[in-house]
Amino acid sequence: MCLSAPSCCSHSGPFVPVPFHCIVPPHMLEVLTMRGDAKTAKAAREQIAIAARAREERSQQSNLRMLPAGAETAAAFVTPAAIAAAPVRNLDRAVHDGKQKAALPGTLVRSEGDGPSGDDDVDMAYDSAKQVYDLYFAEFGRDSIDGMGMKLIQTVHHRRKFNNAFWDGTQMAYGDGDGKIFSTFLELSVIGHEMSHGVVQFSGGLVYEGQSGALNESFADVFGAIVKQHATGESVDHSDWLIGKAILGPDINGSALRSMKAPGTAYSDAVLGQDPQPYHMDFYVNTTSDNGGVHINSGIPNHAFYLYCQYMGGNAWEKPGQIWYHALQRLNNPNAVFHDWATQTMESAMELYGIGSMDAKLLRRAWKLVGIEV
To answer: Where is each Peptidase M4 C-terminal domain found (predicted)?
Structure first.
């Protein structure tokens, strides 16, 4: 699990490595080891140790799929016409109870078609997975995470008072939080974020380091936000644009993990410190921590997407989301930097909506406002 400063990627073969993607940034855990009380600091150190063991175990794995079974390249973008014609719906959910232990996936509690389990966390994970699936299927013609009906495996109650949620290349898992720093991880933007890391993985991948890693995180944030807006019917001007809203503990001075509207303002707390995300390339953070600041510098492309949505109005899953999804399918560059990604979104906007379209012109303006000229 990506819980400490060193890379959690294991370069075990010729393909893009599939790291553990966690919602809580490593810099938060590092701060907790220094600023938290004795119990909190101890728990943070234990999670960092867990990460080290996970990296070692991960280095032995070489069989994780990067693309749908049998595919040699990422699936091509599915056009609106193809969506109307097309895909078979294969929603298949399985929610397990980890019983506060480390083993995954744990005890199966609710399978596809089962009624409510009586465990609020199980049922939240089950219902939220459908909301994420519905977005990708209805708006992008994508049948589950891999585009081919992959079972959506989730584990709740992972480990005891575990302060994180993650995608491990095959499934999602959610800790309960310690009730002090974090209250829960079962929040729709978090679940959408983690599942969207899987979408990136099965669309060719983005190396989880530096700017390509920040783009990986940003895509997950963008679609975590879109999932929440799609499920509630929120337009871009009514959304709060927060990732992880209400997962922070009751005594933490903050509203969320990240803000796409105003990167750097999500929290300011005596224990957690100040949200370090920049909104502009002038404030890009060069660091060896967090795989080169993947959870930090993602604020820049996040803010570009937010600005574009404000220019466009309406719903984020319409033209802005279509452009971002199309760009991911077309990118074919796992080491892409911010300028590569901005250029690809521009090409996608022009391909979808016209070279001289206002859609493309406004996108160029959004990138310029975060310091990226395309």
So the answer is: 205-372
CATH fold for domain 210-369:
Neutral Protease; domain 2 (1.10.390)
- Please write the tens of the pLDDT for every residue from 78-92: 444 554 455 789 999
Helix pair 358-369, 299-312: axis angle to 10 deg:
140
Residue-wise burial string across 341-370, b where 16 or more C-beta atoms lie within 10 A, e elsewhere: bbbbbbbbbbebbeeeeebbebbbebbeeb
Give me the numbers of helices (H) and strands (E) for the chain, helices first please: 11, 10
End-to-end distance of the chain based on CA atoms, in angstroms? 35
Q: What sign has the CA pseudo-torsion 175, 4, 169, 330?
A: positive
**Contacts of 283 by beta carbon, 8 Å cutoff, 6+ apart:** none
Residue type, 35: R
**Contact by Cβ (8 Å): 172, 155:** yes
Q: Is the pLDDT of residue 323 over 70?
A: yes
CA separation for the pair 316, 293 (Å, rounded) = 26
CA–CA distance, 228 with 79 (Å, rounded to integer): 23
Spell out the domain ranges in the chain.
Answer: 72-201, 210-369
Contacts of 355 (CB under 8 A, 6+ apart): none
Question: 72-201: what fold?
Answer: Elastase; domain 1 (3.10.170)
Residue range 170-225, pLDDT digits in tens? 999 999 999 999 999 999 999 999 999 999 999 989 999 999 999 999 999 999 99
Say if residue 320's pLDDT is above 70: yes
What whole-number distance in Å separates Cα of residue 224 and Cα of residue 322? Answer: 14
Q: How far apart are CA 374 and CA 284, in angstroms?
A: 18
pTM: 0.90
* Catalytically active residues, by annotation: 194, 295
Centre a 10 Å sphere on the Cβ of residue 321 and count the other Cβ atoms it contains. Answer: 22
